[in-house]
From TrEMBL:
Residues 16-35 bind DNA. This is HTH tetR-type domain-containing protein. InterPro entries: Homeodomain-like_sf, HTH-type_TetR-like_transc_reg, HTH_TetR, Tet_transcr_reg_TetR-rel_C_sf, TetR_C. PANTHER family: HTH-TYPE TRANSCRIPTIONAL REGULATOR RUTR, TETR-FAMILY TRANSCRIPTIONAL REGULATOR. Residues 1-53 form the HTH tetR-type domain. Keywords: DNA-binding, Transcription, Transcription regulation. GO terms for molecular function: DNA-binding transcription factor activity; transcription cis-regulatory region binding. It comes from Streptomyces resistomycificus.
Length: 173
């Protein structure tokens, strides 16, 4: 899809009806027939990647968390691109994109991680008294922080390393 390719290559500011028309070889009128504005174009493009590959519920919680974080990373690096993350951090520069990104990409993925932690509490694998909203922020935030500090994505073993770091604080005794 042209809009996603432009998002990865140029960031959200590069996703305009005109740019999508040029990139895809379509007429602007063709795009305007499907989308009445840039917001709808962005929403539709990001909805294309809304499906979240979920791990098997039979896996231990720790393995499901590593899987979900790996998918989170893949989505940011390969699907929407790191320019989308940078734009999200500067949300006031492109509020339409920020809203759509939070609603269609970030929020649902973090919710799946949160649900996985809740299921771990229900199964007795995780402590019931941990602050899991903070844990989710720490898990996802570690990727963002590593990228911000180093200017490059974290190492290949990032998902395992971050779960290993948090695991002693949340696992049931």
């Amino acid at each position: 899809m042209a809009a996603l390719a432009l998002l990865r290559e140029r960031g959200p500011q590069g996703v305009t009806v005109e740019a999508v028309a040029q990139y895809s070889g379509s007429a602007k009128t063709t795009i305007y027939r499907r989308y009445k504005n840039r917001y709808e174009l962005l929403r539709s493009s990001l909805a294309f990647v809304e499906d979240i590959p979920e791990p098997s519920p039979g896996l231990p919680v720790r393995e499901r968390l590593v899987y979900l974080l790996t998918q989170f990373r893949h989505g940011l690096e390969e699907v929407v691109g790191l320019r989308a993350l940078v734009a999200l951090l500067h949300g006031d520069e492109d509020p339409e994109f920020t809203q759509v990104f939070r609603e269609t990409i970030l929020g649902p993925r973090l919710e799946v991680i949160f649900q996985t932690l809740r299921s771990g509490v229900e199964s007795g694998e995780l402590r019931a008294d941990a602050d899991y909203e903070t844990v989710v922020s720490m898990l996802a935030g570690s990727f963002i922080a590593r990228f911000a500090v180093r200017g490059a994505p974290p190492p290949a073993d990032w998902a395992d390393a971050v779960v290993d770091t948090i695991w002693p604080a949340i696992r049931a005794a």
